[in-house]
Structure formats: structure tokens, C-alpha cells
DNA sequence: CGAGTTTGACCTGCGC
DNA sequence: GCGCAGGTCAAACTCG
């Protein structure tokens, strides 16, 4: 049963408001929502960081967290209409164990497009 | 040439 | 109020 939820849920999501000084043209100072999308945490034991779930992910950041001795990777769905994000963290105790946290829901079919694989059996938050 | 990856800088929230 | 930790973006670089 690798469905245990790590203490990641304690973290809150915040969006950076484009309040770049000097860029008065921005105007979009309104916060991008506190992000109320569901989250799906998965703990998988794999040698690879990214699991090919059928979607295309683009890495947009990497940070080292104190909780883990390994850096955490941040991925984003390449689809323009899909703002789903994925967080991949490696356990310090088990470098073979990776925690994949999905944020949001895909509003499109996987890149394969072979069939609408409704593998959304994720525990709806 | 384009998409994707990498790395650093910057910002925000929370704890002390 | 300040410092720390975590998260995101943007510019530059690389590979296909």
C-alpha cells in the first residue's frame, strides 16, 4: 500500500502576484487564487524520477528541501489548456522511493490519445 | 529553429 | 520585524 500521504499537505499553496516593481504595465496584481485544486499524493518505488503516465511534463524548477537530502523537482503539463502541476520528491531514507504529487486535474487526454484512459482512480480530495 | 532542461534570483508565508 | 524554507519564473543553453 503505497498510498500513505506524506506531511506535504501541511504546505500551503501561494501564487506569486506579478507585482514587479517598474512594470506598471502589469496591472494584474490580483492574486492568482489561493489554489483550491485537489491534490493527489503518490508514493512509488522507481529508479526514475518521472513516471511516464501518458502525459508530457516540462520541468520548471528544482529546489532542495530540508526534509529530504535530495532535490525536489517541479513539473508542469505542457498542454496550454492544462495547468496541472507535478511535484517529484525523493525519499532520503530510500533513494529508490519517489513521491509524486499531482496538483490539479488533466482536462485533456494523455499524449497517447489512444483512448480516454480514465485512470482517475485517484482518491478525489 | 523549437521545445525542453538547467540554474539562479526573487517573492511570499510562517515561525520565532 | 526578521529570518528561513519553499515555490515559481525567466534567461541561457542543449539536444533533436
TrEMBL record:
Main localization of the protein described in the UniProt heading: nucleus
Protein name (record): WRKY domain-containing protein
Keywords carried by this UniProt record: DNA-binding, Nucleus, Transcription, Transcription regulation
Pfam family, one: WRKY
GO molecular-function terms, A-Z: DNA-binding transcription factor activity; sequence-specific DNA binding
InterPro entries cross-referenced by the UniProt entry: WRKY_dom (IPR003657), WRKY_dom_sf (IPR036576), WRKY_plant (IPR044810)
Keyword Methyltransferase: no
Signal sequence, renumbered to the chain: none
Amino acid at each position: 500500500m503505497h498510498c500513505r500521504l506524506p506531511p506535504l499537505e501541511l504546505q500551503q499553496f501561494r501564487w506569486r502576484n506579478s507585482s514587479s516593481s517598474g512594470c506598471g504595465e502589469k496591472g494584474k496584481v490580483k492574486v492568482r487564487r489561493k489554489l483550491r485544486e485537489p491534490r493527489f499524493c503518490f508514493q512509488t518505488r522507481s529508479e526514475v524520477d518521472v513516471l511516464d503516465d501518458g502525459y508530457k511534463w516540462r520541468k520548471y524548477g528544482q529546489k532542495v528541501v530540508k526534509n529530504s537530502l535530495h532535490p525536489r523537482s517541479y513539473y508542469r503539463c505542457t498542454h496550454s489548456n492544462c495547468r496541472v502541476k507535478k511535484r517529484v520528491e525523493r525519499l532520503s531514507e530510500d533513494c529508490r522511493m519517489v513521491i509524486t504529487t499531482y496538483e490539479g486535474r488533466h482536462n485533456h487526454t494523455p499524449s497517447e490519445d489512444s483512448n480516454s484512459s480514465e485512470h482517475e482512480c485517484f482518491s478525489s480530495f
